[in-house]
């Protein structure tokens, strides 16, 4: 690790000021400290933001406002989250280990960087995300954990978060603050697709910080599930994960929100499938056809082509369970 | 300000690069806390921070300022073995012993999490208090790797203490 | 291993074969076999309290004054030369004590490679260590930095500026095949063996399987990373090490640094897992050299990444197994050949065909292995080298053949169970595989298996059962001494430089010594982990326990003779010879007349002695040549496979082991379960991702090299036949490695039973199932 300075921010104002002056924000450190030790990240100044809001409180609209410094474990264990947004609890609990969930913050989880082996190994030459213009060794290399959707010739890294997949399905909003003021960005628009600038993971501007996450009110009678498919039964990143929220009324799918993890540079909302299925009885054949709409643009490689059938089959099983249970 | 480690106040290191694990092992010679990977991938460095289990390898020591750290050396009362330590011996919950302190610290926190009714990924109904079962313990201990393959003994030891506490 | 060695080993076998049994170790069974004493009793690890309280100090945990910390720099290229090297910024960085590169490293000879015939040779690599600017593999150490703190050392290491002139590297398995080498021998066995015409028999038989099985590189992944703390005082060296080879390490360091053997002390009381990895590697030499240069103690702890890059793992293999049978099930042909990686500067052939040579009787056989030279860190032994991956190929093929023949796979195996060693014709010392299968099938409920694949299902989960044989040879090392000190109060301390990576060495050796010396367990202590003690062989080949037992037995015999001599004419035993008494209940007792006895206290008191000390070595392990000594196991697996995702989850594992006497059922059961769990990891998730473009390992960490986690591990039932081996000390054979063997095949066979899909490439990941299904 290179030498760095360490300070703490007690308020969002202090944190934005520090961010504006070139500090990197440090939450639980579960990702940043690891990457600093690997030499992938080399910040000279750290500001610890774990002292910022760790409240989870109801919003006037009937949703929840979750402070950026809320620990992952606290989020998953919160009674209101377990009761009203179980898909979020389950997604968080699917990630990492109990120790890491006790450390990692919600904002840090959103900001975590890819686990692509060519990104996390600072001695590998070709990684446009780590070193713009250097190439992408994952293409032609090990691409099992990589994107089949949303990647570019410059980068096929996936975003590794489980939590964000559930947040995408829940239409969460990310609250941002900077010296210029506050703004709110839908989570599904917060992470960028790589295009020709894969070093930019998100739309966060210099000097801007995440202050909170907002969950809209849960639809009445919503049923939800999170299923994670991985190599080890626990403590492993997703090959594919599915977050699904559905409302079924007398055999008709009146509402559906479907998001995938492990297959794209960002949590992937299957908007085309949702639209095709909304208001239908959602038979297995219809679900398969609807999913094909989203996967039509997939660009699988030899190493990750299995994710197309895997994502599709996993989503079909999850939806069949949810719809079947509701019937 | 200082860090309270096993009830004793310890000054912060001057170098913010020093992790909590480094502080414990190199400066304080509390080497019961192990480093297996220094990457958050094995759980050998697990300690309790204000009672919650964390990885001391990814915690900067300066981040623990004003907080309470309990390590394997501070788990037991005086010269007694902690019930989990005794159960790990009784159930052969180790071979080489290197991951053992981390397993035991994680297990102590796990029992508290279960007592608080917190769910895990394998809990069927996450709105209700999670039940005690081998599967729950396996999932909740999955962040602590063991290469000798002492897992069955570890799970048996934790179940034993959980049942003793419930009785 | 050479043709000369083949000839030597061959003639030893011949001569030993002619010798009368009574002249040989094991010629008459160990009198302790079957005696009910401490051996065979349940006893927990004696060092348990130290381990559960964190008080056990490992190699990186010894506090020393003036200690400085080392960090390493590794080459990111596989082949070439250092073109430019600038260490000025590193040398100027805060806290830096030394920067060591090929320019400043003392000139040293290569380390003698591990050898079966030289127990003091311990090296895993013959490559020079920081001796020149050549780069020979990706990950090679190119610099070491010493600083006052580990943080300063790490940072300074990052400031060393190196550029490389890259050269073409041999990194591709497939491309290396045309230049593959065919060694004359594999360990002490002739490499290429053939009986009859196996290829012709294969073509002509009613049933045949002929398939390629592949296994990836594996990493030992002991949770304790390799670490040494080296301290010189003048020309005397103390090394706190994490090693499976204490005495050989001390001998190697003395030779390398040109000091007297007695001026080197290697201490390794606790080792945080070994599995073959904790041998002698570059970090030993680097730390010792650096400490000598700066005249301060040096601690070098490998980063987890460095463990992957500079300590070899298990080689990948590509194996062909062909099996043919006549309608009755008798094997007419067995062919097992293949490729593994073994660079010429390495020491460890992956002996994947050796197990197959002892397991089945077949009319025609052919065995042979080829080595591929790649520019990589040399592979080394990893738990059950050879058998772990060889049994996956062979035992998958047997299952394939059984399915083709509509025969129960256990029945097929037993119909080909040999009476004598199939190649040499030498009798087995003891062999009860059939009994292991009988016990296992009953305990497991094998009868409930439906032989037709994909017939049992619960919801989305397809259910399957499989079985497979595991095997591992008996090994006793040809060296090893122990010292016994007996005091007047009837206490004994037994000592040698033994190693314990978690198996419970001190625990079972204390049990054994109590029985051998006729003392209660509480009166016996076992000292180990220190090269100043009489030299024990390295802990390898599952051979440490019997090797030390044999040495203790020899020392006890010597002790008996010395005690008789001291006892003199005043003793009730006067006139008796060593073979006519035994050590029992705190004294010597006449075998013929148990009323004639003399206590240790009385003997030593009369002689005016407080204690008596003897040191003795074990006899050469000639029993290994007189008899075919082999352990077997019957492995059973019950699992489920998601019909949706292809995820495989193990429901139950059961192993029945035919491994001779079990010395301590508790520690043995734990060790056997542990081996099966490593087999589970090998089956389902373990794979070193070696990027053939760069020659670089891309998952050099525990988050990405997936060893099993708690949730992967089901109920595991281990049992044993408990039949002693009449030819081995205590009737025991090693148990450290056999349990990993056969497990991956049992799982693969169960996956086939569940899904109807045959996977022949480890690990058995869901993508392979989905692809096979789609194909």
TrEMBL record, chain A:
Q: Has UniProt tagged this entry with the keyword S-adenosyl-L-methionine? A: no
Single GO term (MF):
FAD binding
Which segments constitute the FAD-binding PCMH-type domain?
1-220
Keyword annotations for this protein? FAD, Flavoprotein
Q: Where is the signal peptide?
A: none
Gene3D superfamilies named in the record: 3.30.465.10, CO dehydrogenase flavoprotein, C-terminal domain, Uridine Diphospho-n-acetylenolpyruvylglucosamine Reductase, domain 2
Name of the protein described by the UniProt record: Xanthine dehydrogenase YagS FAD-binding subunit
* Protein's organism: Salipiger marinus
From TrEMBL, chain B:
Q: Which UniProt keywords apply?
A: 2Fe-2S, Iron, Iron-sulfur, Metal-binding, Oxidoreductase
Annotated GO molecular function terms are:
2 iron, 2 sulfur cluster binding; metal ion binding; oxidoreductase activity, acting on the aldehyde or oxo group of donors
Superkingdom assignment: Bacteria
Start and end of every 2Fe-2S ferredoxin-type domain? Answer: 1-75
Entries under InterPro entries matching the protein = 2Fe-2S-bd, 2Fe-2S-bd_dom_sf, 2Fe-2S_ferredoxin-like_sf, 2Fe-2S_ferredoxin-type, 2Fe2S_fd_BS, Aldehyde_Oxdr_Iron-Sulfur, Beta-grasp_dom_sf
Q: One short Pfam family name for this protein?
A: Fer2
PANTHER family reported in the protein's UniProt record: OXIDOREDUCTASE WITH IRON-SULFUR SUBUNIT, OXIDOREDUCTASE, IRON-SULPHUR BINDING SUBUNIT-RELATED-RELATED
Q: What is this protein called?
A: Xanthine dehydrogenase YagT iron-sulfur-binding subunit
Per the UniProt record, the source organism is Salipiger marinus
TrEMBL record, chain C:
Q: Which residues cross the membrane?
A: none
Q: Which Pfam families match?
A: Ald_Xan_dh_C (PF01315), MoCoBD_1 (PF02738), MoCoBD_2 (PF20256)
Is Oxidoreductase one of the keywords?
Answer: yes
GO MF annotations, alphabetized: iron ion binding; oxidoreductase activity
Name of the protein in question = Xanthine dehydrogenase YagR molybdenum-binding subunit
- Cite the Gene3D superfamilies for this sequence: Aldehyde oxidase/xanthine dehydrogenase, a/b hammerhead (3.90.1170.50), Aldehyde oxidase/xanthine dehydrogenase, molybdopterin binding domain (3.30.365.10)
InterPro entries registered for this protein in UniProt:
Ald_Oxase/Xan_DH_a/b, Ald_Oxase/Xan_DH_a/b_sf, Ald_Oxase/xanthine_DH-like, AldOxase/xan_DH_MoCoBD1, AldOxase/xan_DH_MoCoBD2, AldOxase/xan_DH_Mopterin-bd_sf
The keyword Hydrolase is assigned to this record: no
Q: Which residues form the Aldehyde oxidase/xanthine dehydrogenase a/b hammerhead domain?
A: 53-168
Cite the entry's keywords alphabetically.
Molybdenum, Oxidoreductase
SMART domains to which the protein is assigned, alphabetical: Ald_Xan_dh_C
């Amino acid at each position: 690790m290179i030498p760095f300075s360490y300070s703490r921010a007690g308020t969002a104002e202090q944190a934005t000021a520090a961010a504006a002056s070139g500090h990197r924000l440090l939450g639980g450190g579960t990702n940043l400290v690891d990457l600093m030790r690997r030499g992938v990240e080399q910040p000279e100044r750290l500001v610890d933001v774990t002292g910022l809001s760790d409240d989870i409180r109801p919003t006037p609209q009937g949703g929840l406002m979750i402070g950026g410094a809320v620990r992952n474990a606290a989020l998953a264990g919160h009674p209101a989250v377990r009761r009203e947004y179980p898909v979020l609890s389950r997604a968080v609990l699917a990630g990492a280990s109990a120790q890491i969930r006790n450390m990692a913050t919600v904002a840090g989880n959103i900001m975590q960087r890819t686990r692509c082996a060519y990104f996390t190994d600072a001695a590998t030459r070709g990684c446009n995300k780590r070193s713009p213009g250097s190439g992408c060794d994952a293409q032609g290399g090990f691409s099992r954990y990589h994107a089949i959707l949303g990647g570019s010739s410059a980068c096929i890294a996936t975003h590794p978060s489980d939590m964000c997949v559930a947040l995408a399905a829940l239409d969460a909003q990310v609250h941002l603050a900077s010296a210029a003021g506050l703004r709110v960005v839908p989570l599904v628009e917060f992470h960028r697709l790589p295009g020709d600038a894969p070093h930019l993971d998100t739309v966060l501007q210099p000097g801007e910080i995440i202050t909170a996450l907002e969950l809209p009110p849960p639809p009445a009678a919503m049923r939800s599930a999170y299923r994670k498919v991985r190599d080890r039964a626990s403590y492993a990143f997703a090959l594919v994960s599915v977050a699904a929220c559905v409302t079924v009324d007398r055999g008709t799918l009146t509402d559906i929100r479907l998001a995938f993890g492990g297959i794209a540079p960002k949590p992937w909302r299957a908007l085309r499938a949702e639209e095709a299925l909304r208001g239908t009885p959602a038979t297995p054949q219809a679900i398969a056809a609807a999913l094909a709409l989203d996967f039509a643009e997939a660009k699988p490689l030899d190493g990750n082509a299995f994710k197309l059938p895997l994502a599709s089959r996993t989503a079909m099983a999850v939806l069949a369970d949810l719809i079947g249970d509701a019937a | 300000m200082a860090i309270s480690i096993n009830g004793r106040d310890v000054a912060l290191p001057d170098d913010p690069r020093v992790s909590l694990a480094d502080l414990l092992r190199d400066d304080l010679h509390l080497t019961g806390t192990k480093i297996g990977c220094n990457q958050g991938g094995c759980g050998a460095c697990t300690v309790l921070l204000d009672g919650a289990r964390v990885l001391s390898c990814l915690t900067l020591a300066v981040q623990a300022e004003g907080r309470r750290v309990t390590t394997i050396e501070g788990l037991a009362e005086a010269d007694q073995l902690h019930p989990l330590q005794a159960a790990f011996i009784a159930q052969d919950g180790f071979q080489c012993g290197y991951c053992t302190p981390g397993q035991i610290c994680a297990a102590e926190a796990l029992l508290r999490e279960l007592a608080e009714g917190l769910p895990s990924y394998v809990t069927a109904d996450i709105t209700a208090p999670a039940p005690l079962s081998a599967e729950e313990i396996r999932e909740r201990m999955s962040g602590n790797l063991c290469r000798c393959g002492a897992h069955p003994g570890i799970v048996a030891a934790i179940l034993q203490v959980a049942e003793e506490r419930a009785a | 291993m050479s043709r000369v060695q083949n000839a030597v080993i061959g003639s030893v076998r011949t001569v030993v074969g002619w010798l009368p049994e009574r002249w040989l170790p094991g010629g008459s069974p160990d009198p302790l076999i079957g005696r009910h004493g401490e051996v065979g009793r349940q006893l927990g690890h004696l060092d348990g309290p130290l381990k559960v309280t964190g008080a056990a100090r490992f190699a990186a945990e010894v506090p020393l004054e003036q200690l400085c910390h080392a960090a390493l720099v590794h080459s990111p290229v596989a082949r070439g030369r250092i073109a430019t090297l600038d260490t000025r910024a590193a040398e100027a960085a805060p806290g830096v004590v030394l920067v060591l590169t090929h320019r400043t490293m003392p000139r040293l000879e290569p380390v003698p490679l591990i050898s079966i015939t030289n127990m003091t040779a311990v090296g895993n690599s013959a490559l020079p260590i920081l001796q020149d600017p050549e780069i020979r593999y990706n990950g090679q150490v190119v610099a070491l930095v010493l600083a006052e703190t580990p943080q300063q050392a790490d940072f300074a290491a990052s400031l060393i500026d190196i550029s490389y002139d890259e050269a073409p590297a041999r990194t591709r398995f497939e491309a290396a095949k045309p230049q593959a080498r065919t060694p004359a021998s594999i360990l002490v066995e002739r490499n290429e063996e053939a009986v009859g015409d196996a290829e012709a028999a294969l073509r002509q038989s009613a049933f045949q399987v002929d398939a390629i099985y592949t296994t990836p590189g594996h990493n030992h992944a002991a949770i304790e990373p390799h670490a040494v703390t080296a301290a010189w005082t003048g020309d005397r060296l103390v090394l706190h090490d994490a090693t499976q080879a204490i005495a050989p390490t001390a001998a190697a360091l003395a030779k390398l640094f040109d000091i007297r053997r007695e001026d080197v002390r290697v201490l390794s009381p606790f080792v945080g897992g070994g599995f073959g990895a904790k041998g002698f590697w570059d970090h030993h030499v680097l730390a010792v050299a650096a400490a000598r240069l700066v005249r301060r103690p040096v601690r070098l702890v490998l980063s987890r990444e460095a463990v992957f890059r500079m300590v070899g793992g298990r080689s990948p293999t590509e194996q062909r197994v062909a099996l043919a049978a006549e309608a009755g099930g008798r094997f007419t042909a067995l062919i097992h050949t293949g490729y593994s990686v073994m660079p010429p500067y390495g020491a460890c052939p992956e002996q994947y065909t050796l197990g197959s040579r002892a397991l089945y009787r077949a009319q025609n056989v052919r065995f042979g292995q080829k080595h591929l030279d790649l520019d990589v860190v040399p592979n080394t032994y990893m738990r059950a080298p050879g058998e772990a991956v060889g049994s996956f190929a062979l035992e998958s093929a047997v299952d394939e053949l059984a399915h083709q023949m509509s025969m129960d796979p256990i029945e097929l195996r037993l119909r080909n169970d040999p009476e004598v060693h199939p190649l040499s014709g030498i009798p087995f010392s003891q062999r009860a595989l059939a009994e292991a299968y009988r016990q296992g099938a009953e305990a497991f409920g094998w009868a409930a298996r439906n032989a037709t694949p994909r017939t049992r299902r619960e919801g989305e989960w397809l259910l399957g059962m499989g079985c497979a044989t595991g095997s591992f040879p008996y090994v006793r090392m040809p060296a090893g001494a122990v010292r016994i000190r007996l005091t007047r109060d009837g206490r004994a301390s037994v000592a040698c430089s033994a190693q314990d990576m978690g198996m419970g060495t001190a625990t079972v050796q204390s049990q054994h010594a109590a029985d051998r010396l006729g003392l209660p367990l509480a009166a016996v202590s076992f000292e180990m982990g220190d090269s100043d003690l009489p030299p024990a062989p390295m802990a390898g080949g599952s051979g440490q326990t019997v090797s030390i037992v044999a040495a203790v037995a020899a020392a006890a015999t010597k002790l008996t003779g010395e005690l008789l001599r001291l006892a003199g004419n005043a003793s009730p035993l006067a006139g008796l010879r060593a073979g006519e008494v035994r050590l029992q209940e705190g004294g010597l007792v006449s075998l013929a007349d148990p009323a004639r006895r003399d206590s240790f206290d009385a003997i030593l008191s009369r002689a005016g002695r407080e204690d008596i000390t003897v040191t003795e070595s074990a006899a050469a392990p000639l029993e290994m040549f007189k008899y075919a000594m082999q352990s077997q196991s019957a492995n059973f697996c019950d699992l489920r496979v998601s019909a949706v995702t292809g995820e495989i989850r193990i429901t139950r594992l059961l192993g029945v082991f035919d491994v001779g006497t079990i010395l301590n059922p508790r520690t043995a059961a734990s060790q056997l379960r542990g081996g099966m769990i490593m087999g589970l990891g090998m089956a389902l998730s373990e794979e070193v991702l070696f990027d053939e473009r760069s020659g670089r390992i891309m998952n050099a960490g525990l988050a990405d090299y997936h060893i099993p986690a708690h949730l992967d591990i089901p109920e595991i039932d281990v049992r044993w036949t408990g039949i002693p081996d009449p030819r081995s000390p205590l009737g025991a054979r090693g148990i450290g490695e056999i349990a990993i063997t056969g497990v991956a095949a049992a799982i693969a066979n169960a996956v086939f039973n569940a899904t109807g899909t045959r996977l022949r490439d480890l690990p058995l990941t869901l993508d392979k199932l989905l692809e096979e299904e789609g194909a």
